[in-house]
Prior knowledge:
By secondary structure, the protein is α+β, with helices and mostly antiparallel strands. It has a domain at 262-421: Histidine kinase-like ATPase, C-terminal domain (Heat Shock Protein 90, 2-Layer Sandwich), CATH 3.30.565. 68% of the residues lie in helices and 10% in strands. It is built from 11 helices and 7 strands. It has helices spanning 5-14, 19-36, 43-60, 67-220, 227-257, 270-280, 282-286, 307-323, 355-360, 382-392, 417-421; strands spanning 266-269, 291-295, 302-305, 330-338, 341-347, 396-401, 407-414. It is rod-shaped, with a radius of gyration of 69 Å. 16% of the residues are buried. Residues 1-9 and 418-422 have low confidence and may be disordered.
Amino acid sequence: MISSREEIAELLSSLKEDQSAFRQTALELLDHILERVNPLTDKDLYYFIEKEKKKLFVQSKRQEKSDEETFKEIRDEYNQLVKEFNQFTTTNYLLEYKQKDLMLLANDLEEVNEELEKQKKHIEKQADELRKSHREILEINEELQSQNDYILDQSDYLHEANERISKMHEEVQAQKEEILRKNEELVNLNKEKNNLIGIVAHDLKSPLNQIKGLITIIKFKKDQLDTETVELIETIEKSAVRLSDMINKILDVEAIESKKLNIKLEDVDLKELLKEIANNFGVLADKKNIKINLELKGGKPVVRADRNYALQIFENLVSNAIKFSEHDKNIYFKLNHSKGKVICEIRDESPGLSEQDKKLLFSKYQKLSARPTGDELSTGLGLSIVKKFTESMGGEIWYESELGKGTSFFVSFPLVKNVLQQ
């Protein structure tokens, strides 16, 4: 942009009188302007000034015009050129500003493009994940469909099974009713059986007592009898005693099952009771050369029990120990205290119990595989009565046995604490 307009105006005024000098100065001024114009960025302005320069040169050749007209025209053209130059210069600055804006926009567009590229990759990644999820969903759907088919099959099967179970339930219910009916019949038959046994037992006791009484009378006159007759009388007496014992046990069972036991609880010293039993069975044990060993340590173990029933319990256990033991064996009586109870152990050296015998041990009228070793009598009622008596007095009974290693029976009763403290 030209900055010395006043100088140029003064120069033009001084050149009015000298036309050749004016034209020469104008041409120089145009050359000066052309040097300031960039033909690349201000192409149109550059060619315009070039055109005007040529025109001025042509006009300088015109001799017919007056100097004033020529000066005026040149001045007007100059002013026009200056005006257009200023316009183009302003336009050039605007273009440069716009170019900078465009460059900034280009940078922004590049950043936006990079961001869009990142988002595109992210979207592609998400699309891959969605495709993968879609495949997984399809697989899960197929699996669910398969499971649904399986469930439907199972539902049909369960429905059929439920129908079968319902039929079985009806059959079981019918069987239950039949069992209840038969059980009632068995209960009635058992009552009749017990009544019959009781009647028979009581009816047998009277003639049996008469036989025993007659035998006693005959024994008073055994000096008048021969040896053979005496032996026969003794055999009859033994048979009568065995039959009397059997009847008494049958009556005991009847009393237990009809709950007619007349239990009278009292303080019982078990140590003294076991000593009494050992003394009572001494003769019977001596016949088989069996030794009864008493291991009754401690103080005075007193329990609440019916003495007569307690005596029958331990007599039955000791009788079995002697009955099923071979000659020259040992039987042990032991007393122990544990958790407020006194435990009595009767241990023998018999052949022991088999697994089958263990299942039948406390059942009524059951004969075990083990047999008495001295032709003793066995009714199969002893241990069932022992268990009933023990439990009726609040006690417990159990056993330990192995084949070839003997058998131990344990009977426990609660201790009477105030007696123990004395």
